[in-house]
Amino acid sequence: MHAKGLGSEAAGQKIEDVPALLAAGPRRRTDFEGASAFIDGLDTACNGGVLVGFREWLIVRLGDGNNLAWPELFLRFGFPDSVEARGRGLPAADPDRLVNRLFEVFREFFEERDVVVGLPKIDRRHDAWLHTQPWFRDESD
Asked: What separation in angstroms does the CA of 134 have from each of 67, 114, 128, 129?
């Protein structure tokens, strides 16, 4: 697989190496929309394996946002002071800072997820968080 835009070291990498490549960050200048579209494309190409657990990890860290997609969750997590001011737009942050923060958050996530029991822990934390929400109804009870 050649992951265009991630750098020449991406050439010949296997799908299993995608999280490490994402955690390394971009190798060329891009904006948040471009980076998130690329990441969504990689996730789709990997049948959802790249971002598995990412949304749930962000929800637990935020304590909110179960109705949001990962890009909005990231913006709220990565730039908490700018959420109210930005309305429906991106934070007024420098585009490079925004993309760099995205890859910092991915590094944090992959460090936690990619250990032996990382994903089950993320799932358990998200499930526990859901059960504390007044709107949540567990259909299995």
From this structure: 14, 31, 13, 11
Rounded to whole angstroms, how far apart are CA atoms 16 and 130? Answer: 30
Question: What are the tokens at 67?
Answer: 């109705």
3-state secondary structure 43-72: HHHCCCCCCCCHHHHHHHHHCCCCCCCHHH
- Residue 132 has a CB neighbour count (10 Å cut-off) of 8
Structural domain spans, the chain: 8-131
What are 89-139's pLDDT values in tens digits?
Answer: 565 567 778 888 888 898 899 899 988 899 999 999 999 999 999 999 887
Nearest-angstrom CA–CA distance, 119 and 48: 14
Q: Could you tell me the pTM of the whole model? A: 0.76
Backbone angles phi, psi at 134, to 5 degrees: -65, -25
pLDDT class of 34 with cuts at 50, 70, 90:
confident
Residue 80: pLDDT band with limits 50, 70, 90: confident
- Which pair of structure tokens corresponds to residue 111? 């460090």
